[in-house]
Amino acid sequence: MENEKKISPPEDNPPRPRTLTGNAPPRETPLLPPMAIVKTPYFHLLGYSVAGEETAIQVPELNVVFDIGKCPRPMLTRDFCLLSHGHIDHSAGIVYYLSQLFFQGMIPGTILCPAAIADGLSGIIRAWAALEGKITQHRIVPMKPGDEFELRRGLIARAFATRHTVASLGFTLIDRREKLKPELAAQNLPGHILRDMKARGEKITYTLDVPLVAYTGDTSMGETLLQDGVRDARVLITECTFFEQSHRKRATVGQHMHMQDLVEVLPQLQNELVLISHVSRRTYVGWAARQLARATEGLTIVPRIEFLMDHVQRLDVRPGKAAPFVPAEPVSPTDQDD
Description:
Layout: E1 17-18, E2 27-28, E3 35-39, E4 44-51, E5 54-59, E6 64-66, E7 80-82, H1 88-91, H2 94-103, E8 109-114, H3 118-132, E9 138-143, E10 148-152, E11 155-161, E12 169-180, H4 182-187, H5 191-199, E13 205-215, E14 235-239, H6 248-254, H7 259-265, E15 273-277, E16 279-280, H8 285-295, E17 304-307, E18 312-313
Parallel strand pairs: 4-16, 6-7, 7-8, 8-9, 13-14, 14-15, 15-17
Antiparallel strand pairs: 1-2, 3-4, 3-18, 4-5, 5-6, 10-11, 11-12, 12-13
């Protein structure tokens, strides 16, 4: 098929040997599974997502991974795992993730998950601890729609409602800023006056929330994509599992997104980028992209749309504890605008 990217098999692109230090013998680059890398003006997205197989997508600059899949090695470099639901293709690697963080002397992992599965998740961790003879330090944070968790100062994870066959949530990462009130900014008051006002207990700022990235996990449409913080996030990562017209019923039964569901709401989305994940393994991504392009031909305004797995490549990493993906020029979201 024309204009479709092909991935060379490993034997066609052997890893280059690296010399470490001194007289140490060369070592081959660690073997990693293919990963998609998507660069945005604000951050990178690194991950893998095929329906029924594995989904794990991280945002390196924001220190989070959405779902954990089977825990590909690069995911070990993130301190926060935002788990959308408990299906095994999204959660199988959670115990390995926690154990490896402990084993490698890294910061203990924190898992944000739907409140309904928090006890089950704790049970799995305890059961595995009985096999290993130890329980790794970790934190589980039960979440409900609308709940917020501060990942670091000014960076908030907010849960939003999704609709799937099991308890599920989506997550929006929000850049929360305190801004000087417009009426005070217009007066161009000197700093010492503003400090005095603040010392007297006067409110001189207001809170501005900037949705950076929203992740749906597995969901059917409902109102999922039209919620505040989802439709207007700079980047929206949404599942779209089915593309064939004959699979509409299959999507309904499994409570997944069908291409037509997405097409119907695209004109209402304000995202700069809609990144499609979780395409069925029976669907070729190039074909799916052409189907979506045809379905949106009549729409006047739609966001930029990309398929995560259309950006697959093999990572080149140095041997070491983990396999971080570190962009050459990391971008801080808060540096983009005031």
